[in-house]
Amino acid sequence: MLELRAISKSYGGRRVLEGVSHHFKAGEFVAIMGESGVGKSTLLNLIAGLDVLDEGDVIVDGRPISKLDDDAATRLRRARMGFIFQAFHVLPHLTLEQNVALPLLLNRMPADRAGQMLAAVGLAGRGADFPRQLSGGEMQRVAIARALAHRPALVLADEPTGNLDPETAASVLALLRAEIKANGASAIMVTHSRAAAEQADEILILSRTGLAALSPKHI
């Protein structure tokens, strides 16, 4: 479903990633850890086609992202990917149901699933509320509902528990894992939290030159 082929990226002359290759198995929930500044968020942006590779390629569903024009890349992201950001990016002027319905409308899917997803994340009956009425944990639940509403094949999560207290983080991660498994999706979660990473099927450590499974000495 997803393969990295010797991808490299530099910013301002500084090499962030160099020749990183990895094959992600379909249906797995993978956590990626690594030192601050190693390029974890950059890696997610490259996988999504939100940033441009210097070298190598990202293969999604057998298609090299670098070979797609902007419209085709946008359609791929819209239909096949879901995004969960640390900063939520819940739109303040839309109701909760309207926020969750966005990917459904963009993919011309029935919008009634928005209400179902809000119920799935524990926010049944809150569809008419606005983000300003929510706690941080509740907003992250809305972000998860929105990311999963259109049943994406690949979920990309960037520090999804970074702003949450431990109890809320554990609840959010359990929900995320359950929804991913129920939908048969794959997921890649970037996190600095070992507790969060342990919810995944596999933990990988990112260095500038590659991804490696967590060594037993680090467990």
Largest sheet: 6 strands, mixed
Mean pLDDT: 91
Distance between the termini: 28 Å
| Helical amount | 25-40%
Count of individual beta strands: 10
User: How many structural domains?
Assistant: 1
Low-confidence stretches: none
Structure description:
The structure is a single chain. This protein has helices at 40-48, 70-80, 96-106, 113-120, 136-148, 166-183, 194-197; strands spanning 2-11, 14-24, 29-33, 55-60, 63-64, 81-85, 154-158, 186-190, 202-207, 210-213. It is α/β, with parallel strands linked by helices. The chain has a single domain, classed as 3-Layer(aba) Sandwich (Rossmann fold). The chain has a 6-stranded mixed β-sheet with strand order 6-7-8-3-9-10. A 4-stranded antiparallel β-sheet has the order 2-1-4-5, covered by helices on one side. The longest helix is centred in the C-terminal third of the chain and has 18 residues, at 166-183. It is globular. The mean pLDDT is 91.
